[in-house]
Fold this sequence. Notes:
Number of helices: 1
Largest sheet: 11 strands, antiparallel
Strand content: 35-45%
Number of domains: 3
Distance between the termini: 103 Å
Structural class: mainly beta
InterPro entries: ZU5_dom
Organism: Pedobacter chitinilyticus
Domain ZU5: 50-175
Protein name: ZU5 domain-containing protein
Radius of gyration: 27 Å
Pfam family, one: ZU5
Amino acid sequence: MKKRVNWIFILLMVVAISACKKKNEKPNDPLPDTEIPGAVKTKHGEVVGTATQKIIGAAGGEVTVPNTTVKLVIPAGAIDGDVNFSVQEVSRTLADGAVGTTYRFLPENVTFKQDVQITMPYYSSSNMIPSRLRLAYQDKNGYWHKAKDAIVDYYKETVTVKTRHFSDWVAISDIYIKNTGKENLEKGESTELQVCFMPTKESPDNDDLLAPTVKIEDVKVKEWRFWGTSTLDRGKLVGGAAASNTYVAPAAAPKSLMRIYVEAVLFPLEPGKTETVLRFSDIVVLSEEYCIYQIGNSSSWAGDEKVDVWSGGGMYVNFYGSSGGARVHFEAPDENTGLKVFGEKVLITFNSGSQYFSSTYTACNSTEPLYEKGDIVVIGTKDGLVSGDAKGNLRPKTAGTAYCFGNAIPFSAKFRYRKK
């Protein structure tokens, strides 16, 4: 009897242990994101275009993105076996201080035995100080970190770091000019500009968390001024030698869109250094007719060359740009105020050089029309002018094919034209 009880007890223990093991093999519920007070957090960017991929093994290798200076170098011995690495452009979500295109490096779960090297480009004409350039990356919870050690190549206009972390990366300048108001101004409107500094927050790991930007001290700013020798009326700067200055647009609208270039001259930031000049160009004074657009991470405008409007009813308008032969086409059955969803009668196309993008596309070897997600919104009509905006996806036509189109690319635009 005693032996029988012992066997029953052992059997029950085995069943209990087995049940516990099966329960513990289930993945744990994800822990809620830990909020870090005083740290910069944004959403992750959306994919733009097609990723560049390459399988690299223990012998090492490189991944380079075509037509860019983006490079990933995996040294020999950094990994044990073959890994499919990819570099993907994504939309930029870090607004303050970013001075380049954002790229996503994958896969994130690779364990490196030694540092790998990432090289990223920066925009040389943008709002930055070369000596303050760094690379920043975004962790899985959306927080941004500044990589402490960076090598800047001023000739190639790149920033390089060594890391063991894969995520979204972008070049940053921790001192820059910030526009606190509107980027696109009507005649007579104004906006406040500030020279800002992006501090860091101490982090347990080797890289510092980015903290929200703050204005630098007024005494560090020597003057504000317009850049260039244009004879056009560019408006005025009001505020003198201080960290903040107000830009006021001209009283009359320009004949075509006018970009305003403003400089802030800073006293030497370190002993023995020379004055530093920040140049800011993210202000545009609107003309009567215009189209300002963004496709992927590239922004520009059209309509400064010519605007063609069909007079046969409905919306059928082409904005031509003087730069790169760009053309933006909007088409809808009417010009009434309201939402017009992409479809059979609602269309946006974009041309630049030999590239053609469209909201209406076809699958390879098929003539059946397909429609991307998006819409055109007519905001209103006043004094014979139709104003609106658009947002959605366009697809690039694959060169040399009859029907093939590539992956969807985000597109947005603001426009205004005179009715015929």
